[in-house]
Amino acid sequence: MDDVLDLDAVIVVAQSEAYNCAKLLRNNDIFCKLFPTPPSVFPGCSLALAVSSLKLQKAMQILRNEDMKVIKYSYLEGNIIESFYESSWY
């Protein structure tokens, strides 16, 4: 079973394409969630697709094959939730 706590990589895409990118990845059996982009990855207001680092390269390949514009991708120190907090409370 997939868990949000396993999402330890992000893909920053154009906001106008974020929903379609998430749908595309889910249709290809990649568990992902849309999150605000962590400030440590990309300053400013943007959305990111959070994925497991184990699936990051596959996700990137799928998005590129469909001509989706990837602005940036990054591995995180911990999971997507931890990236917003200095100390974990869960």
UniProtKB/TrEMBL annotation:
Which top-rank group of organisms is this from?
Bacteria
* Putative Se/S carrier protein-like domain segment(s): 14-70
Q: What is this protein's record name?
A: Putative Se/S carrier protein-like domain-containing protein
